[in-house]
Please model this.
Amino acid sequence: MNDTIKKPQISERRKFFTNIAHNAGLGVMGGLLWAGYADKAKGSTLTLRPPGALKEEDFLSACIKCGLCAEACVNRPSNISKLTGKPRPGTLKMAKAKDDVTIGTPFFVAADIPCYMCEDIPCVPVCPTGALDLASLTNKNNELDFRLMDMGIAVVDPNSCIAFWGIQCDACYRACPLMDEAIKLEYDRNERTGKHAFLKPIIVMDICTGCGLCEKACVTEKPAIFIQPREIALGKPGDHYVKGWDSKDEQRAVSQEAKDVTTKTERSEKGAADYLNEGVDFE
Amino acid sequence: MSNVKYLILRRVSQITLLVLYFGANAYGWKMLAGTMSSSSVLEKIPLSDPFAVLQMLAAGAVLTFDVILGAMIIALFYGIIGGRAFCSWVCPVNMVTDAANWLRRKLYMDKIERKVWMSRNIRYYMIILALVVSFVSGLAAFEIISPITILNRGVIFGFGAGAGLLVAIFLFDLFVLKNGWCGHICPLGGVHSIIGKYSLIRVKHNSDNCTLCMKCKEVCPEVQVLDMIGKRSEFVVKQECTNCGRCVDVCNDDALGFSIRNYLKQ
Ligand code: SF4
Ligand code: SF4
Ligand code: SF4
Ligand code: SF4
Ligand code: SF4
Model:
């Protein structure tokens, strides 16, 4: 039994191809793992981005993770404490590995530190990549306008908001930089007592910027008013429902119709009166 | 003392940059703000990492003038002057991997090591892979795992769980493979190798002075670039040389020194 076990001989040619297959295999494996991780790394859809941020998907590909926005936010003059002369913690944080936000991208947590809607919006012009889009915050007169900010939208949970119980509270209303525009107080009769009023905070969706000052100000244990990204918090009526009394909304439907309605069935060739009456004998 | 001259200069350079970055966030300094992904110098000159910009392009971002200009400034600077100097004079991870390498020598790790072999070209495949994954995922793929930006941001904004990656790289270089990360895998090092291929500042070897002590090969993080030692008097032209100057430092026989490549004479 002295025979040495012979290794199968392989030709140079075969070796070459095996090598290629080997490397390609490793590459594909690595790529799949990597892409899988990248998918996970996109983080929570509940993330609130800085003012002027592009739509989340575009923002993620555009932000180079330089942190210039966060640095501008923390060092803005209005954030320097008059007492200590030092900057207070800034609104924008750069995500770390455990934040459930793509690592290295800026975000904020309204309940910790909301966005103060600075008039000069220092965080946006410094962005080198356009991930924070200056144009989206510039009004017709070519000025920066913080009213155009759109980080998210405030949502009220009427079950835990004590104003809906009839207890007087207008903490969020007063905290709002767009007081009486973004949050209005709705007066309602309190049937339970018969002589008091409800003063319910109501969000005006088009105006609220999602700055989070209301969430920060809310007095309940866990804020009854809180910020969500618009894509999460808002519904969409679609084109089937149109406010016939609102000429703007009608336009929306008209322009949609021109674009979208291409369905042609045997039925739609005919007018409704015709096909509904098909086969009916009118005598 | 003279045999650590470039080492000290490099540490001064690396640490100064980190201090400037830190100060930009903590005290509002304007000298160098941002991170190594993209910075602004005195609020005027943009600088961007060319590899990050390439990944953004692959991920489908619309590039702005600022980042393109910033990436070009960086690429031209290293391409014409510095070579792969980013790796040894700027990148903070270099301090981590150098530390691992130093400890490795102190512990005689090379003597007991089981042979682990890896191609030094993995970094170039990593570049391609990073671009493909960026394209597929719509996210700059290396930037979500880059230990360079994790360390850089950690110093500026505070460390998070990502710091574990740095420890992992340290241990990998110490126990698994000599110069494992920077010398084999890191795609940013690969990008800077390619960018710096034709740079003017290079190490030059004078084989007449060489006594074959091989100290240079012991310290060089990319030994394969020193294949001419004791044989031919020529420039270290292989692109992976990081211009760290460690070989120049340790050579006691004046056989290695920085010089400027003269394309006209060649
Ligand atoms: S607008 Fe908001 S995010 Fe921007 S600097 Fe001011 S507080 Fe910070
Ligand atoms: S300034 Fe722009 S590119 Fe830089 S981190 Fe902020 S959003 Fe991203
Ligand atoms: S988030 Fe709250 S405070 Fe800010 S604009 Fe909207 S309602 Fe006002
Ligand atoms: S190879 Fe990568 S980690 Fe190492 S010094 Fe160069 S860029 Fe930094
Ligand atoms: S050849 Fe010299 S300068 Fe180049 S990497 Fe090696 S030790 Fe550094």
